[in-house]
Design brief:
This protein is an alpha+beta fold and 60 residues long. The protein has one domain. β1 and β2 form a beta hairpin.
């Protein structure tokens, strides 16, 4: 597994973090905000999964 992202003195993040959907490592590359998903479709898939979980919890 790669290096974990860490915040530097200037407020940027360096290192790698796994995508929340597919677990591929994402290089943060000096960003000010942490990048949690490797692509936008993975962000939407996670959102859809969360909506389904909430609806299933309400209906059960």
């Amino acid at each position: 597994m790669g290096e974990r992202a860490r915040i530097e003195k200037d407020g940027t993040y360096t290192g790698d973090l796994p995508c929340k959907w597919c677990q591929v490592l994402i290089d943060q590359g000096g960003r000010r905000r942490v990048r949690r998903y490797c692509r936008g479709t993975h962000r939407w898939k996670q959102y859809g999964a969360n909506v389904v979980a909430v609806v299933a919890g309400i209906l059960s």
